[in-house]
Amino acid sequence: MKYSVAVLTSLLHLAASQIDLTNWILELPVKADPLNPNNTEVATILNPQLNAVPRFSNEFFYTTPASDGQVFHTPVFPPNGQPQSGTPFVSTFLRESDPNSTFVHWDSTKGTHSLKADLAVTTFPGTTNAKMIVAEIKVNSNICVGCTSFALFAHAKSNPITYYLKGVFGNFTTTVDIDPAYQLGAKFNIEILVVEGVIYFYYNNELKSPEGGFKSTEQSVYYKAGAFSQNQNSVLHPAAAVNEVVFYSLAVTHNESTTPPQLPPPATTSVVSSEPTASATADAGKGAASPSTTAAATKSSSVVLSLFLAAVGFALM
Ligand SMILES: *[C@@H]1O[C@H](CO)[C@@H](O)[C@H](O)[C@H]1NC(C)=O
Ligand SMILES: *[C@@H]1O[C@H](CO)[C@@H](O)[C@H](O)[C@H]1NC(C)=O
Ligand SMILES: *[C@@H]1O[C@H](CO)[C@@H](O)[C@H](O)[C@H]1NC(C)=O
Ligand SMILES: *[C@@H]1O[C@H](CO)[C@@H](O)[C@H](O)[C@H]1NC(C)=O
């Protein structure tokens, strides 16, 4: 009797929110220890709490009213949220882990790795250069905080307000237009697929990565998903601005397969530039390290970052 109630509850629970959070850690844009001003770590929700019934929920992470998706809500810039330790950016996101909430890393040069999701960017400032990462293959490196093998960015520009999606590969060395006229709230599907050191990206089932995929030599990476703001500048963006993305499904698989995907005929992918936007420069003008400047200045990044963090610490005092 007890057992069937548990099964029923768990079925209802799964039907309600769809996403299995067993292999994720949730990071929140608030301090882990609000009473200790010296502690810059953000709060995390680990398993079994994260995937429990009823589902963990707060103002940053909650189920949609229709119970069909998981909302990730984050302030757009640091004064309104605690930045990720070691970065200037505020975020609410999931990071890959094992079921015991130990971080997981994998070798992008071996086997097959896939992240599939259905999602929508629902709230986003309409200010020029507003930007957020919603899904990523992050490089696991303590010398290069901004390094990324692939990141799906939402961007905006004003006059008139338009939203667009971009993919960046290999520490921002290659940028690809994903959707130049994205409508806020429009649901889309993605797959970030890695096979034996080659990254492929699909948007609404169409291949959008550069022809033949993007070569990756990274041996320690992990998937991330959620709302990862890339803005720090309160002059450029409204003080109360928030980013919101809804995930309707999210699934990661890893296996040993070495078979490359069957690729459709070459898509009309345009490789547009080596910079995600001019905004990197705009925000950097405020003395902050944007992801692209961080990537470009890998060697001196720890120095730049310490200076930057000192500046943020000062600004917050
Ligand atoms: C924070 O750091 C300062 C300087 O190291 C120290 O004096 C202070 O006691 C610390 N505060 C807490 C709450 O640990
Ligand atoms: C999780 O922890 C349990 C208990 O310590 C252990 O038996 C199990 O092997 C661990 N699982 C993983 C994936 O490490
Ligand atoms: C990205 O940066 C990392 C860390 O410095 C480096 O190992 C890697 O080769 C870079 N990848 C690309 C494609 O530039
Ligand atoms: C490996 O994973 C890929 C991506 O999810 C999947 O398409 C493929 O069928 C899997 N192969 C095996 C042998 O499990």
UniProtKB/TrEMBL annotation:
Pfam families: Alginate_lyase2 (PF08787). Residues 277-292 have a biased composition (Low complexity). Residues 19-254 form the Alginate lyase domain. It comes from the Eukaryota. Residues 1-17 form the signal peptide. Residues 257-292 are annotated as: Disordered. Keywords: Signal. InterPro entries: Alginate_lyase_2, ConA-like_dom_sf. This is Alginate lyase 2 domain-containing protein.
